[in-house]
Amino acid sequence: MLHEIDRYVHLNSWMHRWRPRPKLVGLGTLIFAFAMVEDLRLVPAMLGVTAVLYTIATLPLSFLLHQLRYPGFFILGVVLLLPLVSGETILWQWGPIALHSEGVSAMVLIVCRFFSILTLGLIILGTSPFSATIKAMRSLGLPHVLADMMLLSYRYLFEFAQMLTTMQQAMKLRGFKAPSRLALRELMSHLRRLASLMGTLLIRSYEQSLRSYQAMGLRGYGAAAPHSPGQSPPSSLWNGSALIVMLMVSAGFVLSDFL
Amino acid sequence: MHISDGLLPAKVCITGYAITGGLTWYSLRQIDRRSTSTEDIPKASLLTAAFFAASAIRFPLPPGSLHLVLNGALGVVLDCYAFPAVLVGLFFQALVFGHGGLTTLGINAVIMGVPALLASFIFKLRRLIKGQSSRATFVFSFLAGVSGVGLSALLFFSLVITMVPAELDASLEQTAALVLLLSHGPLMLLEGLFTAMLVSFLARMKPEVIPE
Amino acid sequence: MTLLSPIPQNSAVNPVFSPPLATEVALSMTNLSFVYPDGTEVLRQLHLSLQAGERVGVLGPNGAGKTTFFKLLCGLLRPTQGAVTLFDQSVAFGRFRSDLGFVFQNPDDQLFSASVWEDIAFGPQNMGLSAEQVEERVAMAMALTGTQSLAQRMPHHLSGGEKRMVAIATIVAMQPSLIIYDEPSANLDLRARRRLIQYLLHSEETFLVASHDLEMILEVCDRVVLLNNGHIVVDGDPSEIMQDRALMESHGLEVPYSLAGRELKSGG
What is the pLDDT of residues B17-46, one digit of tens each? Predict the structure, then answer.
C-alpha cells in the first residue's frame, strides 16, 4: 500500500512532538554521520542509538519490518556475494568456495548502516505529516520550485497510481494479457498498447494539472505576494536540547571513526 | 538501478549531493527564465507524479517481466523540469518503497537525471530537421530513450563496480562492466522503442504535452 | 450539438414489452463475502441469482459495497468466501471472460487508444478474432451505440456523452452475455442520458446497473436489489421497492419523484 508512510503520524510520543525543523536537522545529521561509519567497532553503538530512537518514537515494529522488506531483499542480493569475492584473508574454505574476512566485515558494515539509516529516515517521515516535513525543508533553504513540486506531486501520486490500476483492470477485462511466448510481433503490439496506456495516463494527468492550476490560480497561487516566512512557534526546551543531543551524538560518531 | 543506503562511502554520497545541487541550481535558473513558470509548476509536478505511477508498468518478457526505466521519456516530456522531477521522484521512491535511499539520493539523481537531461537535449535536436515530421519525432525520441537508459546503466555499473567491493582487480572490473553493459543492449532497444511509441502517441493525441 | 447517430429502433423485437422467456440462470452466487486484509468487512454472505434476460438495478448509498460487488463478479477481486457462477462456469480470480462486460464508472478509465475505432477493436483483437471478424464486431458495436461517425476521432476529444457511448461500444463489441454498468448516467446531460436509456431499453443482454439515478433504474430495470452495509436488504419489483418511503429513507435513499406522486395519490 502506498499510504503506509504517514500511517502513524497521529501518535503522541516525544519524537512526534519534536518540531519537524529541528528533527530534520538533528536526525538528518545523524544519518550522514552513520553513512560515514567505516569502523566495525562502532556498529553496535550505531544499532543501539537507532533502537533507542525508534523506541522513543513508539512506532510499531511491524511498520519498520514492512518498510524494510523490499529494500532489504535488494541490499541482501547485492552484498551476499561480498564475503565470497572480496578480500584476502580466508576465514573458512570449502572446495572452491572461500569466505574472506574483509568481505564479511564489509557486508556487516553495509547491512547495519543501511538498516540504521533507513530506520532514522522512517522516524523523520513517520512522525510528522509529510507537508510539515516539506515546510521544514523549505525553511531550511529548499527552493520553492522543489517544495511546490514535492507537495503537488505527493498530492496526486496516490490518485494517479489508482487511476493506472483501474485502467489496467479495464484492459484486463477486455482480454489484455501478457504474451505467453517470445514472439516479436506480439511483444511489439503489447509494447504499443502499454505506450498508449502510459500516454493516456500522462494526458489525463496533464489535463488534471490544467484544472488544478486554474483552481489554484483562483485561490491566489502565483500572485505577486511572496511566500510568507511563517512564524515559528517559540522553541521549547525539549526541541532545542534534543537537537543539541543529536548533534553531539553525530559528532561523537564522526570523531570516533577518525580515531 | 538505484543505489541503497549504506552501500557507498560518505564521500561519494556527498559528492553526489554536490553534483545534484549544481544541476538543480542550473535547472532552476532555466526555469526562472521562463515567463510561464507558475503555470509550469503544476504541470511538471503532476507529470512527475504520473511518471512515478507509471514506473509500476511491467513489460512481459517471457518467462519473466521487467520494469521500464523511463528516464529518457521523462527527459523528453519534462524538458528543463526533468532534473527536479527525477529528484522528487527518487525522493518519493526512497520514501514510499524504500527503493534507493536518503543518503544516496544525490548520487541516484545523478545516475537517473543526467541521462534524462541528455535525452531532453537529443530530442530537441529534431528541430534541426526541417518540417519536423512524425518520423523525426519517432527517431529522435527513440534515440532519447536509448541514450537515457544507456547512460544510466553505464554510470550505475561503473559506480557499483569501482566503489563497492574494495579489492577486486582492475581487469576483472572492466570485463564485468562490459558484460553488464552489453546485457543491457536489449533493454536499451526496448526502452528506445517504448519512448518512441509513447512520444508519438502524445504528439498525435495531445501535442502540447511535448515541449514545442 | 451531438455527433452521435440515432440508436436503431428494432421494431420486430422490442424487449421492453417482451416477457422474460428464458429460464437459463445467467449469474448466481452463494455466500459471497469480501473482507479487506485489514479486517474491514465489505460484503457479507450475499445470495443472488439472475435469469438470462433480466435487467437488475443495484441500489445503495455511497460506500454500500456496490463497486466491490461488481469487481468480485468480474474476477477483479478474490472473494474471501463463496463463489460466483456465470453461465454454469465459475468465475476465477484474474481470469478473463469475454462473456462478461464491465462498463466502468469513468469512461476515461476505459478509453486509452489513439482512435475510437482502435479502442473498440481492442477487445475483439484480444479475443483472437480474425481481422474481418474484428471489423464486423466494431461496425456492429458502433451501429448499436450510434457512434459510427466518431470512428476516427480521438477518445480524448469527445464529449462526456460520446465517451460514455464509446465505452459501452468497447464492451458490446465483445458480445458479452452479461454487462455490468457502474453509474452509467453520472455526469451526462439530459440528452445524453435519454440516449443511454434508449440504448439500455433496446439492448438484448442481461445486465446489472448500479446508479443513484433512480428514475433511470425505474425505467430500464425489471428487478431491483438494495445493497447496504454489505448485504442485500431487499430484492424485488422496482416500483414496489422504490415506493416504500420508510425503506428507502432508512438506507439513505429517496423515493423517486415520479413515484412520490403516485404514493401521495394512493395514500390520500
Answer: 999 999 999 999 988 888 777 778 889 999
Task: Identify whether residues C143 and C258 lie together within a single domain.
Answer: no
Residues B89-97: what's their mean pLDDT?
A: 80
- What ipTM did this prediction achieve? 0.91
Class of domain B10-209: mainly alpha
* Of the ranges A86-90, C19-23, C56-60, C229-233, the best mean pLDDT one: C56-60
Cβ contact C170:C120 at 8 Å: yes
Last residue of a domain, one of C127, C143, C175: C175
Neighbour subunits, B (≥3 Cβ pairs < 8 A)? A, C
Number of separate domains in chain A: 2
Place of cell 489525463: A204
pLDDT at C16: 45
The pLDDT of A200-212, averaged and rounded, is: 91
d(CA C210, CA C59): 6
- Out of A170, A193, A203, the one facing C110 most closely (by C-beta) is A170
Rounded to whole angstroms, how far apart are CA atoms C64 and C41? 11
- Please tell me whether residue A222 adopts helix, strand or coil conformation: coil
Q: What is the span of the domain harbouring residue C125?
A: 109-175
C118 and C199 together in one domain: no
Give the span between the Cα atoms of A69 and A115, in whole angstroms.
11
Is B210 buried (19+), middle (13-18) or exposed (0-12) by CB count in 10 A?
middle
CB atoms C154 and B205 under 8 Å: yes
Contact at CB, C112 and A200, closer than 8 angstroms: yes
Q: Is the dihedral of CA A115, A116, A122, A125 positive or negative?
A: negative
Q: Which chain A residue has its CA at the smallest distance from B42's CA?
A: A209
pLDDT on residue C21: 52
Domain boundaries, chain B: 10-209
Of A169, A172, A197, the CB nearest to C112: A197
**CB contact, 8 Å: B85 with chain A?**
yes
* Chain B residue whose CA is closest to A204: B50
Q: What is the pLDDT of residue B96?
A: 67
Give the pLDDT confidence of A213-241 residue by residue, as tens digits. Answer: 877 776 767 655 445 444 555 567 778 88
Per-residue pLDDT tens over the stretch B144-191:
999 999 999 989 888 877 775 555 566 776 777 677 777 788 889 999
Instruction: Answer yes or no: do B201 and C114 touch at CB < 8 A.
Output: yes
CATH code assigned at C183: 3.40.50.300
What value does the mean pLDDT take over residues B56-71?
A: 85
| SS3 assignment for C120-180 | HHHHHHHCCCCHHHHHHHHHHHHHHHCCHHHCCCCHHHCCHHHHHHHHHHHHHCCCCCEEE
Note whether A160 contacts B49, CB cutoff 8 Å: yes
Instruction: Tell whether A65 and A119 lie within a shared domain.
Output: yes
Which residues of B have a CB under 8 Å from any CB of C? 201, 204-206
Alpha carbons within 13 A on the beta-carbon side of A196: 23
| Other chains touching A, judged by 3 or more CB pairs under 8 Å | B, C
A193 neighbourhood in chain C, CB within 8 Å: 122
**pLDDT per position as a tens digit, C33-66:** 999 877 888 999 999 999 999 999 999 988 888 9
Range of the domain at A123: 2-140+243-258
Over residues A67-86, the mean pLDDT reads 72
